[in-house]
Amino acid sequence: MQSFGARLLERKWLFIALILILIIMPFFLSDFRTNLLGRYLAFAILVIGLDLLWGYTGVLSLGHGIFFGLGAYIMAMYLSMESMAGAVPDFMMWNGITELPWFWMVFSNPIVAILGAIMVPMIIATILAFFIFRNRIRDVYFTILTQALVLVTVTLIVSQQNVTGGTNGITGFSTIFGYSLSSPVTQQILYYISIGCLVGVFFLCSLLVNSRFGKALIAIRDGENRLRFSGYDTSMFKVLVFSVSAGIAGLAGMLFVTQVGIISPTMMGIIPSIEMILWVAIGGRGTLIGPVIGALLTNSAKTFFSETYPDFWLYFLGFIFVIIVIFLPGGLMSLTQKLKQRGGKHEKQAVSTEGKETNHSAVG
Amino acid sequence: MKNKQLVQKEKKPTILRSDKISVRFGGFYAIKEFDFSIPHGELHFLIGPNGAGKTTFLDAICGKTKYTEGTLTFNGSVNLARLKEYEIVREGIGRKFQAPSIFPYLTVFDNLELAMKQDKRVFPMLFSRMKAADKSKIEDMLNLIGLKEQRNVIAKTLSHGQKQWLEIGMVMMQEPNLLMLDEPIAGMTEEEEEKTGELLLELKKHCSIIVVEHDMDFVRKFAEKVTVMHGGQLLCDGTMEEVQNNERVMEVYLGKKGDDSHAEAL
User: Fold this and answer.
1) A13, A240, B161, B205: which sits with the fewest CB atoms below 10 Å from its CB?
2) Does domain B12-99+166-265 match CATH 3.30.70.260?
3) What average pLDDT does chain B have?
4) What ipTM score was computed for the predicted complex, to two decimals?
5) B119 in contact with A at a CB cutoff of 8 Å?
């Protein structure tokens, strides 16, 4: 029915094309560039969870830096311990601490560390969300609260500098599971692991949003009251989605720290937390694939402009953002919608993408 | 059902009984010691001037507003005071709001699918699949509310009247014992009003219905029983004829200037 071009624009195909491009990228890029792209992949994973939360459920969190940071710190603790082989990190020595604290020791096992980087954010998110959503804290009040939580977390980490590394963060890793972190091969493997995680997370979240559960999320976004008076305990749905998105953020943080080699409070503070939301908005919320593209493109553009026009890059970036907000309020993904509209039938394209998806599943 | 006395006293069991309930906002009583009961399978209209407490009464039943005094008993034994909104729905009380509230970015079919009676807890929802029985239930409802052709249309694009029917359909998908409608025909064309009235008569076969309505022609046409509220209290109840000839009702409606529409209607 649809032309090949229109089919290519279907999200599924778009995603497959994107992954293929990402897979061949290392053959064309230098090791340094591949490593940069690997970091952006971590962000791309993170925004899928954010889109689930904001784009589908309508809950705007400006606090996901916390969960990203938690995942990153837990992995950093492990990497640090592996590199030190029993000794304590420099910053602890300077503060007169000779033995690793318990919350470091817990993560000395790689499996515990990897699971912890995902589970700890999820557990903390579940507890927080339970009390927040139970008390019907919503919309802008919720968003402000998440900002406050970021501030609290960052302050806590900075103040406990004898065990957290303070503003300097944790760095100085040399190996991961026995492989040298500075070797290009290890970095390439990490790059491909990131792609694998991206595919996995994308697949899981696609399943989620296309299920009946996903329809309930959209219903919460568009009419929480109606859904509550249809017999749903909507706050528990929000708790689960918040928790899942926190787990995804933790995974992203873990992948980030292995490829960057450092985590510090500035990488999880208020500004990065807001930036993540910008990537979702630029890509197009409520589409899953849009935010992935948004995160990759925005970060690439940021690097490109800051290298090419070191004095003006922030203006460029701001300019692009303004253009997108004015001309493409639905983000980059609305561009594919517009193209589709040109070629295809007129009636159905007018509806939002998620509407179209559920359309298919309901009929089939 | 457990309450044998009630069953014996009346022909049909009482589905909802309000025993002197009051809703107080600060010092103001929106509802004061209001008594009300509705038996199984009755189409009951709730009328009264603006601010009489009709909508507040519905809010109190469905848990949107907490009542401060009295008791609401559902199905003979369930006390509604301690239940959360969604728990009240699961007991079998459905509410349609005054402004059509549907899920605009889901299809008509999906709207009904979500509303359908099913295990609505978080984890069962994750794994729930569309069964053949579910599908035929939804199809039947689409026929009943006359939206078969629009099944795959995004609900946002429906007309006002169609949205109202969809919401009624959604509430009915919950298979309630008690259906509450707040001004269901507001903003409808005459033709649509007629259709809605017929729909109500059809739905009556499955559950008791409380309708808040201002349109007296509509009430006269379809009401079995009418309760008149005034100032948060019961003014009188009975058949439409009884109510129309009640002196106190005449007083409230006719004695009030600026409420001519009601006066004329009566």
Assistant:
1) B205
2) no
3) 88
4) 0.87
5) no
